[in-house]
Amino acid sequence: MSNHNLLKDSVGLLKKIRQELHDDIDSSKRRELDRAIKELENNRNKLSPPDILRVIGKVVIWIPAIERILNSFREL
Fold this sequence. Notes:
The protein has 76 residues and is mainly α. Helix content is 76%, strand content 0%. It is globular, with a radius of gyration of 13 Å. The model has no long low-confidence stretch (mean pLDDT 85).
C-alpha cells in the first residue's frame, strides 16, 4: 500500500471513529482526535508510515473497547 493510500485510509478511519464516538468521549478527547486528523491532513507529504501509526496510536486508545482492554492489561 502506498503512503498516500495509507494516509487517506487513516484519515478516513479517524473521521469515522470520531463520528461513531461523538457521544461516548469527552470534549477534550474529541479535540485531540480533531488535532490528529488535522496533523495527518496537513502533513500529507511529510509523514512516513511509522509517523502515521504514531498519530493514530495517540487517539485510538480512547475507543471504549480498546480502553477497556488496555486497562485489563494494566491490572495484571
